[in-house]
C-alpha cells in the first residue's frame, strides 16, 4: 500500500434524496500513522464523509458521486462493505445501531468470529478489549440493559479487537462521562502510538479531544474543506469561532484576558502552551478585575425526591436513597459517571418506572397519583437518544404529535405553535422533510422541539447538546435560558463540563446509584475527590489557573462570571 490510506480527489457526492451535493470537491489525503480531527458545524457533511470511508455510501445511502476516492489504493467503487470492514474500523455516532450480538460479549467478538478465531483466543481478546474500556462486568448482559455511555464503550471495544488500517471515530465522546472521555482519548492515543493505522476523529468537543495531540485538524463547512492545519495554527486563528465551533476553555480565557495567541506559543494543547511573564500578568490582571455577582435563589421547591430507591432486576439497586429538592426557576446539572443512575432518575420522575421505595412530590402533590400523561403535562423529558423518541416519519408530524394527542388546541393553533417551536429550534426550513434525511444533531433538535411545544413547567434534558455545533448549542441553550428566566425549571443531564459551567450554577452528582454531592459547579470541578468518584474531569481552566499561580476554584468561578456577562 502507498503511504496514503485515504485519498479524495475532487470528490463530490449528492444523496439521491437531496437536490444539492452534500460534499463538494473534496481533496484530502490521510497517511498511514496520521491522526486527524475533523470538525465543522452540524450538517456540514462530516458523517457523510465518514460514510464514504466505511462503505455505507454507496451501499446503504445511494447517491451520485464524481471525482475519485481511493481507500487503501483501491477506488471506493471496487470495495464492498465486507472488504472495507477489514480496512476501516468504525465507531458510529449512534452506537445503538451498531449492536448485532445478543450479549455484550458476543458483540465485541463479532469482528473476530468472522475470522474463525479459536474460541479460547477469542474469549481472551474480548476480555482484554472489554477491560480496556471498563465493560468487563457486562459481557453477559444484553445491550439494551446498558446505559448510553456503557453502550458507547462497547462499540469502542468492538473496533479495538480488529486489526484495521483506518480507525474512524464519529463523535466518540458523545454520551461518555468526562473521565471515560479522557480514557477514550488516551486509548485512541495508544492506538496511534502502537499501530501505523490512520486515525480519523470527528468531534465537536475540542476541549476534550485536544487533550492529546492530533497531527492535523480538518475544518469543514457546507460540504467543503475550508482549513487543513495543525492545532497550533488553528487555535492561533479565529476560524473555530467564525465557523461555529466551541474553542477549548483555556483558549477562550486567554482571549478574555487579551493575550494574543500565536503558533510559537504551542496553543494546540493546554499542556504544550507556553505563556510569557507578560501573558501571565495579563491573565492575573483580568482575574483581578472580574466582578463577582451573587444570584438570589427562589426558595419555592417545585420537585422533591424523598429517599428514592429503584432496581431493574430486583437485586442490584440502580438508585439508592436519593433525596433532593429542585427550586422553581432553577437551572441545574445532573452529572456523574456512566451508569450512575441519571437517566433512571429521570425515568422515575416521568413515571416510566416506579420507585421501589420513596416518593416524588410535584410542589406538595405526590407524583404517584399522576398518570404518565398527567406528568407529561408538567414535566417534559428529552431522552439521550433521539432515535428512541421519534415515532413519526415527517418532522412536522413528530413535533405536532404531543399537542395533537393532548387535544386542547385547534389544528390552526397547533400549526402556529409548532411553527414557532420549529423556528426556535432551527428546523423551520426543514419542516416538511422526512426525519430520515436529518443528521443526528438535527434529529436531537426535533426531539427538543417536540417537548418544548408542550410548554412544560419542568424540563429534563438528557445530553441536550450532544452532536450540536456551537451555533445550535448556543441557540438551544440560550433558548432554554430564556425559558428558565420565565420561570421554567430546567434540569440538564450532561457529561459536558463546559456546558455545566456555562449554563448552570448547581451540580447534583451521582455515582453508582448514590447522590454524592450537591453543590456549586466550580466547587465540584476543583474538588479532586468528587471528580474522581464521579468520573468528572477538571477543565483546562484549572491548568491555566495553576500556570498563572491563581486559586483554581476562584479562577473557574470568575471565568464563568465573565463568560456569562459577555454572552448576555
Ligand atoms: N441518508 C441521507 N439522505 C439524505 N440526506 C442526508 C442523509 N444523511 C445526511 N443527509 C444530509 O446531508 C447533510 C450532512 O449530514 P451529515 O450527517 O454528514 O452532517 P454532519 O456534519 O455529520 O452533522 P452532525 O454534526 O449534525 O452529525 C445534512 O444536511 C443532512 O440533511
Ligand atoms: N432497562 C434496563 N434494564 C436493566 N438494567 C438497566 C436498564 N437501564 C439501565 N440499567 C442499568 O442501571 C444502571 C443505571 O443506568 P442509567 O441509564 O440510569 O445510567 P446513567 O447515569 O444515565 O448513565 P449514562 O451517563 O451512561 O447515560 C446501569 O448500571 C445500567 O446498566
Q: What does this 3D model show about the protein?
A:
It is a single chain. This protein is of the alpha/beta class and 568 residues long. The protein folds into three domains: 4-243, P-loop containing nucleotide triphosphate hydrolases (Rossmann fold, 3-Layer(aba) Sandwich); 246-289 and 538-568, no CATH class; 301-537, Rossmann fold. It has 23 helices and 20 strands. A six-stranded mixed beta sheet has the order 6-7-8-3-9-10, sandwiched between helices. It has a six-stranded mixed beta sheet with strand order 16-17-18-13-19-20, with helices on both faces. Strands 2-1-4-5 form a four-stranded antiparallel beta sheet, with helices on one face. Strand 17 (458-462), helix 18 and strand 18 (489-493) form a beta-alpha-beta unit. It is globular. The termini are far apart. The model has no long low-confidence stretch (mean pLDDT 88). The structure holds adenosine-5'-triphosphate (2 copies).
Amino acid at each position: 500500500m502507498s503511504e496514503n490510506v485515504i485519498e479524495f480527489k475532487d470528490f463530490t457526492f449528492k444523496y439521491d434524496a437531496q437536490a444539492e451535493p452534500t460534499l463538494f470537491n473534496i481533496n484530502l489525503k490521510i497517511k498511514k500513522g496520521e491522526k486527524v480531527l475533523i470538525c465543522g458545524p452540524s450538517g456540514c457533511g462530516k458523517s457523510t464523509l465518514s460514510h464514504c470511508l466505511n462503505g455505507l455510501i454507496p451501499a446503504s445511502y445511494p447517491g451520485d458521486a464524481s471525482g475519485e476516492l481511493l481507500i487503501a489504493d483501491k477506488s471506493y467503487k471496487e470495495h464492498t462493505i465486507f472488504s472495507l470492514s477489514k480496512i476501516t474500523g468504525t465507531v458510529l455516532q449512534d452506537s445503538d445501531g451498531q449492536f448485532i450480538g445478543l450479549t455484550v460479549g458476543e458483540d465485541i467478538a463479532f469482528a473476530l468470529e468472522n475470522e474463525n478465531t479459536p474460541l479460547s483466543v477469542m474469549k481472551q481478546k474480548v476480555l482484554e478489549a472489554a477491560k480496556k474500556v471498563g465493560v468487563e462486568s457486562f459481557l453477559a448482559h444484553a445491550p439494551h440493559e446498558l446505559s448510553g455511555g456503557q453502550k458507547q464503550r462497547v462499540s469502542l471495544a468492538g473496533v479495538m479487537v480488529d486489526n484495521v488500517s483506518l480507525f474512524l471515530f464519529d463523535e466518540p465522546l458523545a454520551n461518555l462521562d468526562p473521565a471515560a472521555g479522557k480514557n477514550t482519548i488516551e486509548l485512541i492515543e495508544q492506538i496511534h502510538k502502537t499501530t501505523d493505522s490512520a486515525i480519523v476523529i470527528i468531534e465537536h468537543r475540542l476541549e476534550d479531544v485536544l487533550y492529546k495531540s492530533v497531527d492535523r485538524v480538518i475544518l469543514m463547512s457546507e460540504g467543503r474543506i475550508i482549513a487543513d492545519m495543525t492545532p497550533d495554527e488553528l487555535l492561533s486563528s479565529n476560524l473555530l469561532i467564525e465557523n461555529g465551533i466551541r474553542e477549548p476553555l483555556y483558549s477562550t480565557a486567554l482571549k478574555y484576558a487579551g493575550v494574543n495567541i500565536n503558533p510559537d506559543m504551542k496553543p494546540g494543547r493546554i499542556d504544550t502552551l507556553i505563556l510569557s511573564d507578560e501573558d501571565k500578568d495579563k491573565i492575573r490582571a483580568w482575574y483581578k478585575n472580574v466582578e463577582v455577582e451573587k444570584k438570589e435563589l427562589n426558595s419555592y421547591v417545585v420537585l422533591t425526591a424523598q429517599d428514592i430507591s429503584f432496581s431493574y432486576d430486583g437485586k442490584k439497586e440502580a438508585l439508592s436513597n436519593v433525596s433532593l429538592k429542585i427550586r422553581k426557576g432553577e437551572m441545574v446539572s445532573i452529572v456523574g459517571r456512566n451508569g450512575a443512575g441519571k437517566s433512571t432518575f429521570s425515568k422515575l420522575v416521568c413515571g416510566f418506572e416506579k420507585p421501589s421505595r420513596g416518593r416524588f412530590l410535584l410542589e406538595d402533590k405526590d407524583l404517584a397519583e399522576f398518570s404518565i400523561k398527567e406528568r407529561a403535562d408538567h414535566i417534559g423529558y428529552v431522552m439521550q437518544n433521539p432515535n428512541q423518541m421519534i415515532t413519526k416519519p415527517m418532522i412536522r408530524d413528530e413535533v405536532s404529535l404531543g399537542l395533537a394527542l393532548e387535544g386542547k388546541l385547534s389544528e390552526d393553533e397547533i400549526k402556529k405553535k409548532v411553527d414557532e417551536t420549529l423556528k426556535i429550534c432551527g428546523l423551520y426550513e426543514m419542516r416538511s422533510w422526512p426525519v430520515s434525511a436529518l443528521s443526528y444533531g438535527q434529529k436531537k433538535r426535533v426531539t427538543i422541539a417536540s417537548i418544548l411545544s408542550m410548554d412544560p413547567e419542568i424540563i429534563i434534558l438528557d445530553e441536550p447538546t450532544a452532536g450540536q455545533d456551537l451555533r445550535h448549542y448556543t441557540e438551544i441553550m440560550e433558548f432554554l435560558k430564556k425559558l428558565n428566566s420565565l420561570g421554567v425549571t430546567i434540569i440538564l443531564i450532561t457529561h459536558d463540563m463546559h456546558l455545566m459551567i456555562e449554563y448552570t450554577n448547581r451540580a447534583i452528582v451521582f455515582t453508582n446509584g448514590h447522590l454524592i454531592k450537591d453543590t456549586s459547579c466550580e466547587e465540584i470541578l476543583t474538588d479532586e475527590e468528587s471528580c474522581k468518584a464521579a468520573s468528572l474531569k477538571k477543565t483546562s481552566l484549572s491548568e491555566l489557573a495553576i500556570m498563572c499561580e491563581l486559586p483554581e476554584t476562584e479562577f473557574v468561578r470568575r471565568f464563568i462570571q465573565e463568560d456569562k456577562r459577555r454572552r448576555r
